Amino acid sequence: MGEHLFNIFPNERFIDLNLFQYGWEQCIPSQSFGPHIRNHYLFHFVISGAGTLFSMDSKGNNHVYHITSNQGYLICPNQTNTYVADENYPWEYAWIEFDGLRVRELLNLAGLTVDSPVYRSIAKDLTYELINELLYIVKHSNESPFHLIGHLYLALDLLARSSANKSEIKNSKLADFYVHEALTFIEQNFQNDISVNDISQFCNLNRSYFGKIFRNAVGSSPQDFLINYRMSKASELLRITELHVCDISKAVGYPNQLHFSRAFKNVYGISPTHWRNKNLLKQPKNL
User: Fold this and answer.
1) Within-domain flag for 287
2) Which of 29, 68, 206, 237 is 20 to 30 A (C-alpha) from 195?
3) Phi–psi pair at 19, nearest 5 degrees
4) Tens digits of per-residue pLDDT, 160-219?
């Protein structure tokens, strides 16, 4: 293995956008990673050299992408992939592993998806700023979590603005207003027994129309967003408190613990109790 820097982000309490791991690597010739299936999004920016990404699309078809300096590639959750450094000009790259409820929205702006994973730039100045932001994150692991998340937002903004596949932001201020109102309602009432009907009625919108503008803005249905938001809050409580699972169930809007456990397992793949056993943050004993 070549030279590398590797850091783990110490905080998992950010919901909209969170950082998990990040680093830099100068690979050796033909150095290979994979095949792997990731739990979160990974973005690699190639600083120099070249390599190849072997990636499976949303329909299960395999693709081969040859990637060179000043390009990058996205790896999506639950996607099988392998990437290999060139045998003559092995790549040097910076990378970030991230996720969150608003990540798909940010990536859609950049035009990066499981079916279109390669980043190419149309603005050299913004690309230069992008790599500086990524390297800043890598080299400043001792900064506070809020500081690093701020730079992650800047990096993703630069990614979207410089991408050759970027999506144009439509002028839909009224739709944006309704989506903001819906998100605020969810944040303030997720602990109550609310439904998508309640959210659309709060916004004074037809449920079908509300679902359409919400999906266009956020990248998921209101129902999926509400479930993921509640499960994110539940995982936080499981990790940092000793509350009983039935109490956490009620705290995130599930009066029925069985229904909560099923929803949690659908999102995280394991039961709340199993997840807690793997992730519980142990509190220091008082002296």
Assistant:
1) no
2) 237
3) -110, 135
4) 999 988 765 554 567 778 888 888 899 889 999 899 999 999 988 889 989 988 888 777
Terminal alpha carbon distance of the chain: 44
Q: Is residue 16 part of a domain?
A: yes
Tokens of 11: 């905080």
Q: Angle at the Cα of 250 (from 102 to 182), degrees rounded to 5? A: 35
Check if the beta carbon of residue 152 is closer than 8 Å to that of residue 17. Answer: yes
Q: Are residue 70 and residue 43 in the same domain, yes or no? A: yes
206 belongs to a structural domain: yes
**Same domain (yes/no): 187, 146:** no
**The residue to which tokens 């701020």 are assigned:** 150
Q: Kindly report, residue by residue over 77-109, the tens digit of the pLDDT.
A: 888 899 999 999 999 999 999 988 778 778 888
Q: How many structural domains is the chain composed of?
A: 2
**CA 11 – CA 263 distance, rounded (Å):** 24
Return the CATH number at 205. Answer: 1.10.10.60
34 plus 92 within the same structural domain: yes
pLDDT tens-digit series, residues 103-150? 877 888 888 988 999 999 998 999 999 999 999 999 998 888 899 999
- In a 13 Å sphere around the CA of 164, the CA atoms on its Cβ side amount to 12
